[in-house]
Amino acid sequence: MDVIYFFDLLGTFVFAISGTLSAANKKLDLFGAMFAAFITALGGGTIRDCVLGSTPVVWVTDMWYLTLITVAVVFTFVFKKHIMGLKKTLFFFDTVGIGVFTIIGLEKSLGLGFNPAVAVMMGVVSAVFGGVLRDTFVNDIPLIFRKEIYATACIFGALLYLLLSLFNIDRNVNIILTVLVIIAIRLVAIKFKLSLPRITSKN
Amino acid sequence: MDVIYFFDLLGTFVFAISGTLSAANKKLDLFGAMFAAFITALGGGTIRDCVLGSTPVVWVTDMWYLTLITVAVVFTFVFKKHIMGLKKTLFFFDTVGIGVFTIIGLEKSLGLGFNPAVAVMMGVVSAVFGGVLRDTFVNDIPLIFRKEIYATACIFGALLYLLLSLFNIDRNVNIILTVLVIIAIRLVAIKFKLSLPRITSKN
Amino acid sequence: MDVIYFFDLLGTFVFAISGTLSAANKKLDLFGAMFAAFITALGGGTIRDCVLGSTPVVWVTDMWYLTLITVAVVFTFVFKKHIMGLKKTLFFFDTVGIGVFTIIGLEKSLGLGFNPAVAVMMGVVSAVFGGVLRDTFVNDIPLIFRKEIYATACIFGALLYLLLSLFNIDRNVNIILTVLVIIAIRLVAIKFKLSLPRITSKN
Question: What value of ipTM does the predicted structure carry?
């Protein structure tokens, strides 16, 4: 099996758990949790594919996505206590997830013949738009609009991937390096509480 | 005229009224009411068609949809008092609407060659996503994330339809049975205050 | 260069500034500002193109859009104080923007063979849906649902354009007249505090 496909499914699973947990915070019921899980896991790729005209979207033809999301919701309902104790593990896989989603969006866009700037943007869209939609549907201002170097890590990762491609680096090596850099940027940002500048009425 | 087409238009009309009334609750103006009516009535089918790659969506080629929604908004503005007195009638047609929308989404997906799990999901999307978008745009947490066996009724209805199809039941009979079961589940759920489990920090 | 294309890019630039400023009001960071700018500037056209099945959307193949939006965000961050002093100028270009976006949506829909009612609706969608999405993502009820003759100006402009087309008026003259009428309606509405009727529990 393709390594990136394996991590895509893993990322989908982790994003679905994150969606389910955010539904729990908002006291949503099982259906609300399912909805939040699907939106978080599939929202970014769906927006990307609709914008690029690459429909039907991938998860209506490959049943692994819907299956894993359903399993993730049930799993989270049953093992909630244990999952809450695994915050660090979840955070780690979530970061792997955004790294992989970034690369998938990037490679897909390049493969369809779009230019590198669009590909970087679509990498970021794939990685973050699901979480943005999740927050919007549960009536929060999306967290990533205010905190954390999250999208920025994806942008740097995507640029690195493009740069390394120019030197004909082996694709698998490139993917691993890119994901590692995305993880590193995010960890460093959290460790040192780095955040993006704001524009406020006081500037 | 096809019976399902007639009920599709009826469901569109009732969903548009429901959108207009929710706009009234939020003190939106006529344009806000139009927007809420269109989103409620067309949102689910539009998302479904974009995801499945079945565009242009149906309501840009068949003028009955836009016409009926416009009529519904005007009608609700003019006869608001009387409509408010018809809550039970509206509720009944709304339930018929979600039943019919479920079947339309299901049959369309199957007709396009997607597998039954995707078809069930698209049935539910057709029925509930318009209301979810309506609530999100007027800045509420979607009601169906927290209350009522609504989406669940659609899921059971869709599964029943698939099951009966396996026995080569006549399509019209199948549709009627499915819609009746969706109505029945919803009524029973409301009567007995049934709701889906939640996942909370206390589990 | 086509005049309408020039104004399309100008409208995109001004909408991106408006998105960035609304992000500032909500204390979003640079990424939130980028997101708001892209959504405001591109949201309407993207929804239109997805609904009409005209994908990939225009801004993934013509790099001017993404470039100008990025410039607009940086520009707004750097010159915020000066921009805040240019409210009237911004308002003027914003109104030009919605006028031009209305015509672009209208002409594109007609060009694809859709009927005039759909074309008017798609003109309005092109002009207003970006702002609606911006407000929704930053967790506000969209302003245009409650105040100002904004969408209404677009509708009247679009109808005028269709009417004048029937008389074989030169396209450029028609465009200029339409945009002027949209500007005029909006200015008159603000001057005299005109607004659309509401439907409330008291009617």
Answer: 0.87
